[in-house]
Hints:
The chain is an alpha+beta fold and 350 residues long. The protein is built from 9 helices and 12 strands.
Amino acid sequence: xxxxxxLLQISLLTVxxxxxxxxxxxxxxxxxxxxxxxxxLYNKVSAHTERTYTQLWTDFQTTxxxxxxxxxxxxxxxxxxxxxxxDKGAHTPECTAYNxxxxxxxxxxxxxxxxxxxxxxxxxxxxxxxxxRRDNLPFGEVGSASYSSNSGFSxxxxxxxxxxxxxxxxxxxxxxxxFARTYFYMVTAYEDKVASWTSEHLAPYPYPALNTWSVALFxxxxxxxxxxxxxxxxxxxxxxxxxxxxxxIDHPELAEFxxxxxxxxxxxxxxxxxxxxxxxxxxxxxxxxxxxxxEPNCSYRIYSLNGVTVKSGKIDYxxxxxxxxxxxxxxxxxxxxxxxxxxxxxxxxx
Length: 350
């Protein structure tokens, strides 16, 4: 009876979470490959409700709120209060104020041009000073840093990646996948415009739209930094405001079918980069995570980006794991039962 209860609970939670993606939303992309797949996604997500630049301040309170109610900044480890710390004009020192950052710089698409100028999928609240230091630099990986934010959270410097030797901005590891999926969205949602944009990341064609070194970089980040609960929640929140979704958050494997090692293979709703072999529901709150599974006896391990285990133990159907003592940052939780294993990424705000 207890097992039946938890199976029912899992079923209800799964329905609730998956209901965020409307039934059939991506059906027109099924069976497509490469450029045709990208165009099918463009036709689905390009039309959306335009925001005003002023409305973004209020939107952030829905799209970018941490579990503790503070501003979720992906450029720094600062703690900001909505409204109170909103752009004050001065941005020095770091952690003085947050502003509206076009992670895909507006100069690349011509400035204050709608709808790109107010598209929430690439605009995030960020520390003003770090934003200024980033300027309109392309994303990349830094060899020798010329600037680092507090605790080395993000940095600028000469590129260390093959194919580009200029100066780049490198975000924290825990958000690299977020930004990769942001760029996949931008060159897809604006497929009709991207060929005329100017950036070190872009190729002057609707497809592939990204140049060779950028494709390699963003595919790498997409794989190394999987979609997190934070990213899923933001996608749902933006959908509630704009009426469109980022398909590369809903289905991160799409990038491989369009630009990567699955080119030439028809995409379906059931394919993915990493096949999940053990299903579990993950719910995060301020000081704990809840794991619900239909397995009677699972082992879990929480580990950091560098592979260090910070917590481990056993769970049974429905368990709560405290995270209040863990430092702010990105972690992975791995669940295993027998020879079946799966993992999810999450970020703590402690």
